[in-house]
Amino acid sequence: MTDFMCKRFVKNHENTKEPQVREGYGKLASVVGIISNAILCIAKILVGLISGSIAIIADGINNLADASSSVITLAGFKLSALPEDDEHPYGHARIEYITGMIVSVLIVVVGVELIKSSIDKILHPEPLEFSWSMVIVLLLAILLKVWQAMFNIKIGKKINSVALTATGTDSRNDVISTTAVLFSIIIGKMANIQIDGYMGVLVALFIIWSGIGLIKETSSPLLGEAPDPDLVAAISEMASDFDGVLGIHDLVVHNYGPGKVFASIHIEVDANGDLMESHDMVDNIERQLSKKLHIVLTAHMDPIKVDDPIVALMNEVTTKVTDSLDGISNVHDLRVVPGPTHTNIIFDIVVNPSCKLSNKEIHQAFTDAIKAIDENYFVVINFDKNYVNQV
Length: 391
Fold this sequence. Notes:
single chain; alpha/beta; Alpha-lytic protease prodomain-like; Alpha-Beta Plaits; 3-stranded mixed sheet; 6 strands; about 15% strand
């Protein structure tokens, strides 16, 4: 059903990297959510009023919140597809993340309100009017919510949308909450025990817990989470495969929303090679990787001396020190600058977030190893941060 609807209502549905296609998927999921949740809301509130079940009414109000969330998601996809402007040169794609955050907050709000109404039901219990029509409505609601959850999560994964994934998770929560309501009704009928309010509290706590988890998940891209490791690996491997590339470093990836990824990388080339050929190669790396990976890549050319014996020796020494220190990786941009009284050994190293050593301790470790070669060698280190946990 999901694949059929995508093919029927989303133009060029295979090209999920294109902004217009992502917007089409978002519109489809949002409209389906608005219509289906509105139907469920009306049906549950009517059944809840007839039976006197606060849990069913609360469940119906939850569906109303779901419909509102779908409206927010629809607006989010529309706004995130807006082109760049003077105030937002990187586009508006991060609005989709904000939309996911709003949906997550609404889930928590619904859970809190459900706790309030459930506690009131515990303090003032009333018998429920059991009917098979009530059971049928709730069973149909469960089936529809199961499909909604699978529908939204599948589309969310297809277009890498945190907003739709959050919506799908919310639908999954509704399956659990409605099942709990149905369970309480059946128990009340069979054992004449009113657990409607208690079940409502349990459902509400689960909804709040799930909403808090979604807030953490949807806020992570806004805070600047680590890039997709598959993308990092692809950039590294594809750049390294070009003839003339001696090494790569300082790969940094910025995510400004789905389909808006910017990256920069340093390409090491032979300092004795042809400058124009190296520059042409770096340009090709930028163009080809940008096109194949659907990113905007900027490559910086770093010439290095490959035939200097002192440079070769220092590379060997610094590599051994790096291997002996936890949390240190990737010595690069090593340069030997001789002077009348001493020689500066200048290089960059990457310090991982997990590193327990101070910069002073790291500097001392390299200084000890290099001065063992020559007392007149002085170490100058530029400390880089590891932004991608690789390279």
